[in-house]
Amino acid sequence: MAPEVAAPMRKALITGITGQDGSYLTEFLLKKGYEVHGIIRRSSNFNTQRLEHLYIDPHQSSARMKLHYGDLSDASALRKWVDSICPDEVYNLGAQSHVGVSFENPDYTADVVGTGALRLLEAVRIHIESTGRQVKYYQAGSSEMYGATPPPQDETTVFHPRSPYAVAKVAAHFYTVNYREAYGIFACNGILFNHESPRRGENFVTRKITRAIGRIKVGLQKKLYLGNLKASRDWGFAGDYVEGMWLMLQQEKPDDYVLATEDSHTVEEFLEESFTYVGLNWKDHVEIDPRYFRPSEVDNLRGSAKKAKEILKWEPKVQFKQLVAMMVDADLEKAQREKVLVDAGFIDSHQQP
């Protein structure tokens, strides 16, 4: 009797692997037994901090995470890596993802977020056409695409983007739909509402708040400057949402799905919950700075994840209060370590952040 042949290890290619979602998705896929390849941009400084706990020297046979230099603005590099890696699944998480920054750098945002998705889709299409392989594609959408459309927002809700970032995401969304319909590619759009974690970038409002709380609590900072406190968002945990991304690509047919907690809170409510958690009053520390208001604001985003719950059997596990506590605890610990360095004279308290 012939011995059973082990199934080949599935391969995933991730753009934006060094970001919050990329790191959680990498963890998730490695646990599932995948070999994970990530595209990273060349930089004079290492930007792989979120992946350090997963890193194994690529010279070792046990290394299942591998990083490659490339960029969503470079079509030839995307083609090269898709052809050489031969991934089973491609997750396009890479982006200039800060809404406020997109008003200051609209051309770059449109090129990377919108046209970058088109470049990657075309690389996947050509690879499939030339090899006959099936490659599944996930496009990271955003609740910002709904913009001015009132909640609740689901897969049938009309998009009304209110920033260059959101407009570019709408373009990427419809490029994905077009490639699915025109070429039969297994391509899914995940329309994810705001998802946070201790790994969130420090210039995003939730992390900006929790980072400041830690520093205020240990005496490294006194004030926190913010913009619109009335904006309301549907905040979930990023670790929950990456499972939803994966589930989309495990279905028989490609489709588009909203992932959301179906519960929204204002920035002011986030302030109240997070400052109260450590015994502080946010009104003693927060000041409004007009520079943080955007040319066009998005007032209220709250998703309906009914379709994902029914078809994907996906449910968010971490609720709002748990999320806030998780982030504050992590940033308080970080601030305490920073305080040790400040007290020892190794760094200046004013250089952070």
UniProtKB/TrEMBL annotation:
Domain (NAD(P)-binding): residue spans on this chain: 13-327
CDD domains: GDP_MD_SDR_e (cd05260)
Enzyme class, broadest EC rank: lyase
GO biological process, one term: 'de novo' GDP-L-fucose biosynthetic process
Family the entry assigns: Belongs to the NAD(P)-dependent epimerase/dehydratase family. GDP-mannose 4,6-dehydratase subfamily.
One Pfam family it belongs to: GDP_Man_Dehyd
Pathway involvement of the protein, from the record: Nucleotide-sugar biosynthesis; GDP-L-fucose biosynthesis via de novo pathway; GDP-L-fucose from GDP-alpha-D-mannose: step 1/2
Keyword Lipid biosynthesis tagged: no
Co-factor requirement: NADP(+)
Gene3D superfamilies in the record: NAD(P)-binding Rossmann-like Domain, UDP-galactose 4-epimerase, domain 1
Keywords assigned: Lyase, NADP
EC code: 4.2.1.47
Function: Catalyzes the conversion of GDP-D-mannose to GDP-4-dehydro-6-deoxy-D-mannose.
Protein name in UniProt: GDP-mannose 4,6-dehydratase
Catalytic activity, reaction form: GDP-alpha-D-mannose = GDP-4-dehydro-alpha-D-rhamnose + H2O
Lineage: superkingdom: Eukaryota
MF-aspect GO terms: GDP-mannose 4,6-dehydratase activity
